[in-house]
Amino acid sequence: MAQVExxxxxxxxxxxxxxxxxxLSVLYHQMMAHRLGVNSTDLQCLERVAANxxxxxxxxxxxxxxxxxxxxxxxxxxxxxxxxxxxxDNADRRKVFVGATQATKRQAEPLSAPMHEAIGDVLERCGxxxxxxxxEILQELCDAVNKASAQLNAMSNSRAEKRKAVKRVARTRSAx
Length: 176
Hints:
Arc Repressor Mutant, subunit A, 3 strands, globular
């Protein structure tokens, strides 16, 4: 019985540590966003654009769970601030990509450097086997979070659709 309690306690400790890391990361990103003069959502999109080449608004919408209209507004704000630019695909002129500008490297990267250095210091102490294990676990956790996000998004959408349906029925009844 002690081992079961010990495992349950250990799992709880890991979950609590993950929550703490997530919370601290969110707060760090909020500070970065504030210093850059953007909001947290804009910063998350900017980081996604800076980390990947050839990102489309549709891809950003899918990753963030925002509508394409909302993402267009985010891109507009980031473009106005000078952090991203839009460019057309040479093969398909209808397709528009978003890319990070030099201002992103000049202004955002120095703000993220302390976080990257601190994480690098911790990871440097790990052996290759530990790093491989950590990579596998983190990928599985990302997959799990993406799955949970999709479920939450579906729940939110179905509730919103139910509210709309109830309002439509109410309007129809009042019109009769």
